[in-house]
Fold these 2 entries.
Entry 1:
Amino acid sequence: MPNDSLASWNDGAAKEAILDFVRRVTAEREPDFVPENERIAVFDNDGTLWCEMPVPVQAFFADDRLKALAPQHPEWRTTEPFKSKLAGDMKGVMAQGIKGIAELAMATHAGMTTDEFNAIVREWLATAKHPKLGRPYTKAVYQPMLEVLEYLRAQGFSTFIVSGGGVEFMRVFAEEVYGIPPEQVVGSTIKTHFEPRGGTPVLVRDPELDFFDDKAGKPVAINKYIGRRPIACFGNSDGDREMLMWTTLGRPDGRPAFGLIVHHTDAEREFAYDRQHVLSGQLDKGLDEAPGYGWVLADMKNDWKTIFPA
Amino acid sequence: MPNDSLASWNDGAAKEAILDFVRRVTAEREPDFVPENERIAVFDNDGTLWCEMPVPVQAFFADDRLKALAPQHPEWRTTEPFKSKLAGDMKGVMAQGIKGIAELAMATHAGMTTDEFNAIVREWLATAKHPKLGRPYTKAVYQPMLEVLEYLRAQGFSTFIVSGGGVEFMRVFAEEVYGIPPEQVVGSTIKTHFEPRGGTPVLVRDPELDFFDDKAGKPVAINKYIGRRPIACFGNSDGDREMLMWTTLGRPDGRPAFGLIVHHTDAEREFAYDRQHVLSGQLDKGLDEAPGYGWVLADMKNDWKTIFPA
């Protein structure tokens, strides 16, 4: 039976699995019926809803931001990790370890108010383009997944992002691009503090990590922010493994649950990567475990008619 | 013009202010119109939606839980702060300082899975009764505020709790009692961690504070969890001062905004307390600032026809 809701999906096991699951949980008086308030679906962002190659979009943002700020920071010319980064010497950056990466992130993401940060991100997204795809990052999103989001919402689901990306970065575009409002975006956070500033209160972004929403942090964040166990989970890497487990395995409530992994198999139309791609977006354990745990693999090359919106 | 939506409110300035604000932001084509997705209203819980006297409900829970656990912990008979607490010696408990209070909280709130904790709270709420009011805590809620919640939602608002109370404690009853689903409950959190437990994954509650959602923490939590600035804020104590400020003062978006403080003035039907009540629920600065900031005071004795649901 054709279903136009997922028009960019080729007929096949992945598409059928999505439609079948939704049919089961929305059919009243059937044993698998789930009431609307419990129809929570969670989506990773980088690599699941939009392109994360060659590096996650937020890394491009940090790069551009660093260059824009460099003139105000002459000391960066002689201080690591800024020196290496501005010289395009990634080996030099890596030599500084995770501390160096964190310093770059904080220099570009902290020290301003939340309103100022939102404006900076909004402005950047309006003009920046993906280096290989040649389109704005907000158009480097996956059309088949946009259709899944819309289809699930039409069927009474609430759709949440649960991503390692910065929550205030994603909230700038998630509502317009994905139809996901700020209060349904869960992500990594840095600390902020409140300042009354004489009747014009602000929140200031501090250079300290608050929470990194990846791997085993994802179920923790789901519980903290959403407070309900999702019945559907969409990811693409081993960073999503624990939230896939939390969604689909050993549920004491006996609810049916659905897990799907977007498998990047299309070097021609997008990028092909899985086990070998260790920097970010690695999919290794998930490939081994998917069959046993019943997680559906969406093969981008074969399952998706189109990758990006027109 | 009578409005039955707030039937338990006496006609007067407070009721009129609520109705007037809602009329202004929902009237299309008027300058103060706010689209539905931005109609965020935040509510403190203790003392704003339910009774917090003589101590907040969660403290009663901790007490009962400590007594229930005591037989398994013979060492508590000789170790502070447990020894004093079990002997009913509050002076002895206080002598242990904030560290002692935290130890009591962790002993009763941590060390189990999130599912186990939910079941414990659910069971307790089903039988426990308020010592003075003689009714279940879930019926020691304020009827006029239930009406405000329902009225706002009928007018396209999303209603959130933003409370110093434990988020997993409140989520057990907030949906049934207030019509507020788990994902719209923001509160204090303790750390949790994910354990796969051989295919039956759990989240374990650890004895460490993650975030205390009070005072200047409230705007921080609003930004982190909701990601949008509320246009209406309801509180009752100086713990709500910063989120009232964040809602109503110096908004760069120019949105109209509303702040209301529930003032506990009714010793006969509930409790009367404000400036002198320093332990919790103190309302001191808020009383001074309300007129200047345009925050509405709801005088429980004069503005509320009834306090509790029948």
Entry 2:
Amino acid sequence: MAEDGTATKPRVTGGGVADGGGLLHGGDLDGARAAFPEAPEPWVDLSTGINPWPYPLPPVPPQAWTRLPGRAEEAALRTAAAACYGAPSAELVAAASGSQALIQLLPRLRPPGRVAVVEPTYAEHARCWRLAGHEVRGVDGADRAGAPAVDIPASDVLVLVNPNNPDGRLLPPERLLHLAQAQAARGGWLVVDEAFADMEPEQSVVRFAGRPGLVVLRSFGKFFGLAGLRLGIALAPAGLAAALRDAVGPWAVSGPGLSIATAALGDGDWIAGTRGRLDEAMARLRRLLSGAGLTVVGGTALFCLVEDRRAPGLYRALGEAGILVRRFEGRPDWLRFGLPGPEEAWQRLSVALDSRGAWEQGGDKVGTVQPSKKSAS
Amino acid sequence: MAEDGTATKPRVTGGGVADGGGLLHGGDLDGARAAFPEAPEPWVDLSTGINPWPYPLPPVPPQAWTRLPGRAEEAALRTAAAACYGAPSAELVAAASGSQALIQLLPRLRPPGRVAVVEPTYAEHARCWRLAGHEVRGVDGADRAGAPAVDIPASDVLVLVNPNNPDGRLLPPERLLHLAQAQAARGGWLVVDEAFADMEPEQSVVRFAGRPGLVVLRSFGKFFGLAGLRLGIALAPAGLAAALRDAVGPWAVSGPGLSIATAALGDGDWIAGTRGRLDEAMARLRRLLSGAGLTVVGGTALFCLVEDRRAPGLYRALGEAGILVRRFEGRPDWLRFGLPGPEEAWQRLSVALDSRGAWEQGGDKVGTVQPSKKSAS
């Protein structure tokens, strides 16, 4: 895929990767069990983009559970996040109980205005800006994002995910800085959701945090494999970071969450080792999918995107084998695969892909699993 | 103290128990260490209303950390909360990462209007309604709340804490139901913050949850002694509860938090035993304070309020002995004492109270510890 994403030409209209009734998040094993009651247990959940080899939990001091998190604990977390992600200062950092909370809060820190979301992408962005009263429209990522900044229609806020979910489209830092500058010139923001940027720190714009108009979001749980801990980080100019901290309110992140994340963000050896491990695992997954005759059109080290007209049949065949992948209501020809963890999960995926008879007849009809609002992303 | 609180006649003007610069929360050990650098370590923190004997942590399944919390886990928590608190249905329950988050959210679910807060009380209520654009005024709890409902001036929202913090003033359920009915009749709400109601379940209005206009808040961390876990519960008519869940957003409470709280809320034996233990401990604390010549004017089983003109001197003497209690900028004659936990903490408090020479000369000047926004409540 080209760096500007033109190779994938994704196009999902009407609010991004969503369906009419609710957002189609990954991780809905309950829904999958209901749809495939005969599937073997345990399920192999490849529907999320979460590292299957989590950061080993350090001991948590009992006071982290019993006391309200103090200013010192929160300051330590912000310092560790700034250092790990490469931000100039902990003053530019705001923490919340998940990046979802930040995605919900940001739209309330501006008066209603015009918002452009580069699509297709994680649909919560468009949904939350719209809910807060902004006028949201999608900008086609394939056609527009690669073009000069002046081509992106004037909006008060421009939102993009980089690298993008689900196609992995990646805009280089210099491109993003141009966009941020253009947004700042009109008193606006560029929001860069770097939920999947941990693998490629040189592509992150966090080191430029503090520049006017630039807002960066990071997700702790995906790369560190601790999605249940609930921690999201925003990096923004100091005034906006302070406003975000106020809007989040005191004690939003749990004491154990602060304690564990502060240790994890400071563990350079684990981070470096994990980057290598995930790279290898993703190369293996791509080989497995290609070997089954599937075309991988994009992704990151935590997920990859398959485009194939047989995708609905493949989704069903995998479901019957107890393997859940991510599909997209607006794009029945897409399936997103996360990384299997245990060797047994790899083997089950391999066997299911090998049983081509079960899915090669797949048509264009999307299966019947109901979308859900409350399952994993 | 009379049930309607008339015995205490507290009166704090200008936004409740706060100071000009920021809210004066408890738990600010960092600030205390800075103000009393010679104090012995470890500090005895009596400035919060948190049970010092926490619920023993059950084993947490690893997936609670690694996966996003699922719908089943959240539903289990809501069911356990409804059962423990005595609500008619889990549909009436919304959970957030701390009751502070709910206090921040509620004001955004109504158009700006007139809000009355029965004072003095936990100052975050008035602050958050005001921040969201509502017109807030304090209603004197001593003069007004004991009078018939028609005497409370017409407001779209009436907020009270029951039992109240810091004076323990308690309105009986029938009184609250009248108020809720009056609020509902004008399309308004009665918000009852039951953060300290776990000790007296018969005084709670949770069993009436679902009635129009009645919104009840519960705090998990105080009674269960796990304030760092971050869990607050709202109980409201089904439509409002659903709106609150939407406003909180998905995955706000951590996976381990859901897992531990679901177990704790269902542990009737521990809950009953803890009620007895806290009652005994509070009786001991009141005896200790009375024995030192101090007047306890109110409280709950988790804190008690001393009213004495020597309070500033006592605050300083306790600080020099490494014991932190809660004071109130608008009421220099008040100090709130939480429960000591370990026997050593009781002994240190006893010794400090016995050294009357150190504090009996105390004047009316409030000490110099700076208030902080981010420390414990």
